[in-house]
Every structure is written in C-alpha cells, then in structure tokens.
Write a structure and sequence with these properties.
alpha+beta; 6 helices; homodimer; 56% helix; DNA-binding; three-stranded antiparallel sheet; 111 residues; 2 domains; Arc Repressor Mutant, subunit A
Amino acid sequence: MRRDVFQAIADPTRREILGMIAHKSLNINAVTEQFDVSRAAIYKHMKILSECGLLEIRQKGRERYCEGKFERLNEVSDWVAQYRQFWEARLDSLEDYLEQLKKEKYGKSSE
Amino acid sequence: MRRDVFQAIADPTRREILGMIAHKSLNINAVTEQFDVSRAAIYKHMKILSECGLLEIRQKGRERYCEGKFERLNEVSDWVAQYRQFWEARLDSLEDYLEQLKKEKYGKSSE
DNA sequence: TAAATTTGAAACCAAAAGGTTGCATAAATA
DNA sequence: TATTTATGCAACCTTTTGGTTTCAAATTTA
C-alpha cells in the first residue's frame, strides 16, 4: 500500500488529528472524543500517520501518548516551494512573514 | 466527491503532471505520452486538477493546452507553514533560501 | 481477584479512486 | 468528402480507503 506524506495529509481527519496533537500529546481515546467516528477508525488514521513518521508514540502504562513529528512535512514544503515562484510575486511579503515567525520563536516583545 | 487541493496533490501521477506543465503548456496527448497509462486515465487526472483550479485549459482548435495554475497551492503552503516552527529550527537557512529565490527571479548574475 | 479501561487488530462492508475499453463528436487534413 | 486526429465521457472493473463491529490482551483500579 502506498504510504507517503502527501497521501497521509490528504485526509481531512488526519490533518485535524495533527492539529490536535501539535501542542499537546494525547492518547488515542482523547483524540477519538473529538470526532464522530469510532476509536478503531481513529486508530487506523493514527497508524497511517505514525507509519509516515508524522507522529510518534510514547507508551505510558496502558495508554499511548501521540505527539506530532512535523519534520517530514518538509517534503511537502519543498515540493510546494518549487512552484512558489509561479504564484508568489511578492517575495517581500514572505520575508515579512519570516520576520514574524522569528519574533514568535525568539520571544514576543509586545502583546 | 471530495475535491480539494490536498487530495489533488496526493496522487503521484498528478504531481508529475503539474511538474510537466509548470514551464510549458501541453495538450492532453503530449502529457499522456509521458506515462504508461491510457489517455482516459490522464484525462481524468487533469480534470481533477482543473476542478481544483491547479490547471487551466486553453482551447486551440481541436487541441486543449493545459497550463499550471499554482496559486491554489498556497492553501497547502499555509497549512504546512503553521507547523514549520515545530521542525524548522534554523530559520536563517530559510532566509538563505529566500535570497536564492530572489536571485533566480530577479536575474542570475554569475553562472 | 474481579471489573473497568485502553489499546491492537482481524473480519467485514460500502464507497471512492484509478484504471480500462469503446464510442461519439469536432477539427484538421489528404 | 473521407480519413485522421484530439478530445469528452459513459460503462465497467479492481483495488484502496475509510468506516464498522467484535474480540483478545494488557494495565489499572475497586
């Protein structure tokens, strides 16, 4: 079966899951609570994500805490980047965005 | 049927098609020649891409030339960007990359 | 220890995805 | 005009996807 990052993030439920665990590790039941589908369905989604390296699992007793591993998204990022020049005329605005990112990362001064 | 950019770029054949038409418009037969599958299969892929706004078609006599429209990739770009801070520690290298992009765009001086 | 909780995974199902062949139509050409 | 070329699309098929129910195993907890 095909198992790559592009396919992994194609599913909206899986993108939501990644959003949920970005800031906080959650076990499978905790993730399941946020959706209308069964635990087994969520389990399968998370298995796909973990097989793609987009999440990692830490066993803790009978629970398994899942945390996002977003490094692999650089494959997507790189792929998109090669086309950026075709649509993003204003590279300066990207620079602005980058500045903003750095501010966020290295301490927000005024908020 | 679900029809969004994430799903559109999930298929490797469609990503290849986008790569082919990025620099040069091609008609459907010309695209088909590059693959092992039938014209009908390629036609379906291109239909999906056009329904997602990732390519546009210019009729020219009996031929239809397809050109890439990459603006819609910013949806993917934005989605990935929100996680960049989780994996990209070296924002400076992104700045370098940006510089390189600008050089490419505004004229390469020495090559 | 007995019961409850958390999970993994098998078996199964319906729908979607990706492919095919075949045919119709419109445009270009011999 | 008859033929070739380029395409749209229907009908059909197989595999994959995303979901379900069910059961077993391991860990807590009463």
